[in-house]
């Protein structure tokens, strides 16, 4: 920048000393282009609009399509625009997004690329680094970092059949002496009252109709609330298999 200003001053001094009109013309034209570039380049960058669109969640092994739209709403062209998209290695994009574009006034450019979800986690997509400059390199390139967006990668889903669990059997393999829970909304029938039966189990309407005390018989509950506890204490895993074993535990849970 200082060298360029020194060159303009030297040309202007030469034109004054030698009274050369064409040197004046060169100084005016080059100086005007330089001033225009210095004025227009930062304003074009400030007006540049960026929009990134993608689904913010995916499962392990899936691919996510990302659409990056650049819009130049100003009346000044952007002759040189370099953009670099920052992304973690776990998303393993099909190609590193580091390109150079030229945007005409009022022009929109759409860039499509893919992310490959290779590991479970919560990852930032971005920020996007934008660097602009004029065609002749008169003005210093200016840059701007756009905010990052986030992608959630869920663990792999495995069908229960592949886990070898006997939960799909209609009956258990061991007999139980009593039912654990009964569903009060599922009446199975009635029986005669026996000493020790809970008075709240008496079916009063049926008892009045039969002229004897009858007790409700309920069906067992269809479903039972369960709690799955996952141990992620690293001390309980083999040192060489901490990551793989814990990831499989998360998938199974």
Compact overview of the structure:
By secondary structure, the chain is of the alpha+beta class. Helices cover 25% and strands 32% of the residues.
What does this structure look like?
Helices cover 25% and strands 32% of the residues. The chain has 253 residues and is an alpha+beta fold. The protein has a 4-stranded antiparallel beta sheet with strand order 5-4-8-9, with helices on one face. The chain has a 3-stranded antiparallel beta sheet with strand order 1-3-6, covered by helices on one side. Strands 2-10-7 form a 3-stranded mixed beta sheet, with no helix packed on it. A hairpin with an 8-residue loop joins strand 8 and strand 9.
Described by strand count, sense and barrel closure, the largest sheet is: 4 strands, antiparallel
Q: Span between N and C termini?
A: 62 Å
What share of residues is helical?
Answer: 10-25%
Instruction: Work out the strand percent.
Output: 25-35%
Q: What is the CA-atom radius of gyration, in angstroms? A: 37 Å
């Amino acid at each position: 920048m200082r060298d360029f200003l020194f060159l303009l001053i030297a040309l202007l001094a030469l034109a004054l000393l030698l009274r050369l009109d064409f040197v004046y013309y060169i100084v005016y034209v080059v100086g005007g282009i330089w001033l225009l570039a210095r004025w227009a380049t930062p304003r074009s960058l400030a007006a540049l609009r960026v929009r990134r669109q993608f689904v913010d969640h995916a499962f392990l092994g899936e691919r996510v399509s990302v659409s990056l739209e650049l819009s130049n709403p100003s009346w000044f062209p952007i002759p040189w625009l370099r953009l670099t998209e920052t992304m973690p290695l776990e998303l393993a994009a099909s190609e590193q997004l580091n390109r150079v574009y030229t945007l005409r006034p009022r022009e929109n450019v759409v860039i499509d690329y893919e992310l490959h979800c290779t590991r479970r986690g919560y990852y930032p997509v971005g920020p996007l680094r934008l660097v602009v400059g004029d065609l002749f390199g008169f003005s210093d390139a200016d840059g701007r970092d756009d905010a990052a967006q986030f992608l959630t990668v869920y663990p792999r889903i495995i069908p229960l059949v592949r886990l070898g669990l006997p939960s799909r059997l209609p009956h258990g393999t061991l007999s139980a002496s009593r039912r654990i829970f009964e569903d009060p909304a599922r009446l199975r029938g009635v029986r005669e009252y026996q000493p020790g039966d809970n008075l709240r189990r008496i079916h009063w309407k049926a008892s009045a109709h039969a002229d004897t005390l009858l007790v409700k018989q309920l069906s067992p509950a269809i479903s039972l609330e369960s709690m799955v506890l996952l141990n992620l204490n690293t001390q309980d895993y083999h040192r060489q298999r901490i990551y793989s074993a814990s990831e499989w535990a998360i998938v199974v849970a």
